[in-house]
Amino acid sequence: MPIFHRQAKAISRATGRSATAAAAYRAGERIIDERTGEVHDYTKKRGIIHKQIFLPIGCQRMTRTALWNLAEAAENRKDAKVAREWEVSLPAELTAFQRREVAREFALALMKRYGVAVDMCIHAPGKKATTETTTCIYSPARGF
Prior knowledge:
single chain; 5-stranded antiparallel β-sheet; 28% strand; alpha+beta; BirA Bifunctional Protein, domain 2; globular
């Protein structure tokens, strides 16, 4: 029987979070936050099955580092919501290919509906989880 989990969260400076840190963690990468100079290094993180960036039509290709530093730079306020994050469980009953396609369709729907860049990462099940999860982080700032 499928177990459904969905959680939406704001990535807000008011709570001490940053888009660069969230993106680095979800993607298992190293990102330097140009605004603060802080280095977010999650290159030792395991379990990332797939990661992909979706950009609206007309946007130039960019790295994950460039994307999330642009999102941070687009907001000036110290309490700004610099990004939003969706975490969704992927049904274990689907094949790996089908789970990837479900996650991809969700990311594309967010991109098209809001006209924003979306950073999608699929994670293997954790110690307590039995299903893969996808996390889509997107910036409410437009015009990348």
